[in-house]
Amino acid sequence: MPGSASTTHRPEGLIERLRSAAADGGEAKLKVLRELKNQIIGNRTKKLSYIKLGAVPSVVSILSSASSSVDCLLIQCAATIGSFACGVDAGVKAVLDAGAFPHLINLLSHSNEKVVDAGARALKMIYQSKAAPKYDFFQHKNIEFLISLLDKNNENVTGLGASIITHSCETNNEQKILADAGVLKKLINLLQGTTSQRDASLESFATIIKQNPEVITKFVGPENSTTFGSLLELTKDRYPRTRLLACICLTLIKNATSSSSSSSSSSSYLQSVGIRTKLILVLLELVDDFGQVGDEALFTLSSFIEHEEDLQKLAFEANTVDKLCHQMQKESLQAKRLEGIFTTLGNLCSNLEPCRSIVLQSPKALIIITDALTHTTTDVRVAACICLKNVSRSVKYLSAGHFMTEAVIMPVIQLLYDASTSVQVAALCTVSNLVVDFRTHKSLFIQSGGVKQLVELSKSMDSTVRLNAVWALRNLMFLVDSRCKEEIFMDLKLFPLTRLISDSNACVQEQALGLVCNLVNGPVDSIMYLFTEGLLLNTVGRELRRASKPQVLVQAMYVMCNVASGKEFEKEAVMQQLVNEDDNNQSIIVTLLQSDVASLRTAVVWTVVNLSIPTGAGALTRVVKLRNAGVVSQLKNMVNDPCLDVKLRVRTALGQSMTFGDFST
């Protein structure tokens, strides 16, 4: 009857048949399982529909009750479960919630290789998801199970073992346990297998060696040179995915060994210009793939050249910048591709002016980068911001006001309001770069409301945001004219600034004191900001007496140095902060002159020079106080200071003090 036939083909009808199949013979179960599997393969919508109708528990129920001798039924159950799990996290959750995992594991020990293969395939589908169970490698039984998988001849089973490693291995200790158990060697052996085995093994290999120089040195070092050779050979493989994975492994080896004190033949081998150039060229070729391989190739290339100017030069010589500038102009680029392009360009422009020039001379590159600051994807906004920051390190273009335009400044300011902390931090770093050093172009940023948001972010509970906000304010204050300085100070206000100087984070303190130093630098009237209600100078003096971090003390001392360059009133105020008239306690200025930190000694001696200038009504009195506090005696002990800057300033200070007579006893 047409009505009945129609009902049985609807999802509800199929589910009803599935539930009743348990009471029927094997053929009925097989038929409904095949029909269900065919319905959901490659169809996400139908998968979700059947999951909601409760199909998965019914399939797992058939699997759990099936006789181990009914091989075809076991295979169909495993295949159907794998189909539900493939590419759909909701499917993985439904499969795990229904208790399928242990039943699938049991299939791996079945006598029929086809059943084993079906179970392994289903489990591999599960392990494509982050929701898959993690194995505890601190339990010996789990290591034994893993090794048993890697020892099989079945590529799906060995692939499952590799997938478990990639999914579950997260810490250095887990990496070491796996390597010491011989897992790494087994993965290396599998590099000689099928394409599927090679790729799975390379991914797992990368997981075990990532940021672990100890493991790399032991297993890819002098006694295992064939491993490095195998990886290098795989960069020539016919399959792009394999070439990419081999490059990823070699990049991880290079990064881990170059950032550690350990040495190995692999790290030495990667010093070869020929091999480095070859890897860059392989990755550039892979970038032409506009799928996942090309996206990952960009990030691998970026990681390979990061922090190493020599590698950045090799990439530049390989026309990487031109290639990426051309690629970014293509229409409808996916977010991942844009992020990769901006990240790689950002690294290339971090040190090399020729790279920045190519980007800035490209007709559309800067427009595309600034447009990406408003992209809907957070990671793209971050990457574009960092790219802009590094491109704007060009002194030539920055000093010419090339970036201080509304088209650049306004979207950067908007990012300071972004909901993402990572975007805010990237924007703050970019602002720090854009506003530094060139006084004639800062007014646009101030007039556009940028200062108010910097001040708000300087109050953030997140220390990274707070640090970078203060850093940006410090750079904005550098060499700014008096009118802009007044506007910034009015927005910043006194009490928030004193809190920043006393911040619990020493890095924030350093930047806050640098901000104050820039505030009082310049015309003599700038120093008066420190005497607003007397709070700022007292706060700086208090930090000099209680801070322990050299970078904080140096910045605080330079504040005193700048103030000491002022009029008599300012010089006397500095004397009160630095010179203790109590003979029983050593003055802080003498303690700081005895520091092991050359930059701190330099700042203190500069301050003494400013205080001892032999002009002004109070000059003699100050020099006498400095002598009585032991400053002059300490300076005499420093005439042969190992730091040339200190030595020169000491001679100047002593020469000025001698104007009033020799105080030697």
UniProtKB/TrEMBL annotation:
GO terms for biological process: proteasome-mediated ubiquitin-dependent protein catabolic process. It is found in: Cytoplasm; Nucleus. It comes from the Eukaryota. Keywords: Cytoplasm, Nucleus, Repeat. Its main location: cytoplasm. GO terms for cellular component: cytoplasm; GID complex; nucleus. Pfam families: Arm. This is Armadillo repeat-containing protein 8. It comes from Lactuca virosa. The lineage of its organism: Eukaryota, Viridiplantae, Streptophyta, Embryophyta, Tracheophyta.
